[in-house]
Write a structure and sequence with these properties.
By secondary structure, this protein is of the alpha+beta class. Helix content is about 40%, strand content about 15%. The N terminus is likely disordered. InterPro entries: Beta-lactam/transpept-like (IPR012338), Beta-lactam_cat (IPR045155), Beta-lactam_class-A (IPR000871).
Length: about 325
């Protein structure tokens, strides 16, 4: 296809992409999320399955959505459900649950208690490759809270399996059900290879449920404020800023606090042909809870790079909204 025709087609797709306006009617020549919508539209036309949702952190208003009701594979995103169950048990057993409505509770990160410091050993049955640091370390056992921190920071697969051996998938599923999640599930332990008798995916989720879940975490509404704060703390350690969060200009290894007024906690999921991210980004003007999953043909590097570029373009729109 000649470049002139390709440019014209791209321009036409940008013109038909959904548009919106800032709530304060600032004229930004095309409206909020225009670039992100145009980028997602172009990907969808090329055969990429896109599911996405963004909601305003304060009002809960849906800012945009793309097939956000669909339950699709989300790779490691489902580990958030495990972290929620771990945090709820720590809060309950250490007797530190607090009123979710108190501003004082929201400003204090809970100190570790007996449950958080319980030591868990890794076994040969837990072993798995890919993401995570523990498989490369010599230490054979770690406290529960440290395992949760490893999952938040590096999506640690070995730590995930060790915690799941203690917690149990049934408990994680029950917790998800109690939170009202119907399309978002952690289906299995992490496996190097999936056989015919294994769940076909590690986790699935819908963009609407994930965006809402992260908004509730930000507002201290998941179980209680102490539980929510624990999960937020672990996720704020996340070092994967290769997707949506790549647009925020943060240090991948040090963004627990705010930087230029921007704060983030997020969880990513990566698998062959899957890039997924859910998170909350806040700035001086506003906050956004978001979830985006892309399923694509990963046969060529160009396809993967196009997906990542589109996710960062959407992140640029989020940054504009909150900043």
């Amino acid at each position: 296809m000649p470049d002139s025709i390709r440019r014209r087609a791209r321009s036409e797709r940008e013109e038909i992409a959904p548009r919106g306006r800032r709530s304060d009617s600032i004229d930004n020549d095309g409206g909020i999320f225009r670039k992100g919508f145009a980028s997602l539209t172009e990907l969808a036309l090329s055969g990429v399955q896109v599911t996405a949702c963004a909601v305003d952190l304060e009002s809960g208003k849906v800012l945009f959505s793309v097939d956000d009701h669909l339950s699709v594979p989300t790779a490691s995103i489902g580990k958030v459900l495990l972290l929620i169950e771990v945090a709820a048990r720590i809060s309950a057993r250490d007797g530190r649950a607090t009123d979710a409505g108190t501003s004082a509770a929201k400003s204090v990160r809970p100190a570790p208690g007996a449950e958080a410091l319980s030591i868990l050993n890794r076994t040969a049955q837990d072993s798995v490759g890919d993401s995570g640091l523990w498989q490369h370390l010599q230490v054979p056992a770690l406290p529960v809270a440290d395992l949760a921190a490893l999952i938040g920071a590096t999506s640690d697969n070995l730590a995930t399996n060790v915690l799941l051996r203690r917690i149990g998938l049934d408990a994680v599923r029950a917790r998800a059900e109690s939170l009202g999640l119907k399309r978002t599930l952690l289906l299995d332990i992490v496996r190097d290879e999936r056989g015919p008798d294994d769940a076909p995916q590690l986790s699935v989720g819908s963009a609407r449920e994930l965006a809402t879940l992260f908004r509730r975490l930000a507002r201290g509404e998941i179980v209680d404020e102490t539980t929510s704060a624990l999960v937020r703390g672990w996720l704020s350690l996340g070092s994967d800023l290769s997707m949506v969060a790549g647009a925020f200009g943060l240090d991948p290894f040090a963004h627990v606090g705010t930087d230029h007024g921007i704060a983030l906690f997020n969880k990513t999921g990566t698998d062959a042909g899957i890039r997924s991210e859910a998170g909350v980004v806040t700035g001086p003007r506003a906050g956004v809870a978001y979830a985006v999953t892309m399923r694509f043909n990963d046969a060529a590097l160009s396809g993967r790079l196009a997906v990542l570029e589109s996710m960062r373009t959407l992140g640029t729109d989020f940054l504009e909204y909150v900043f």
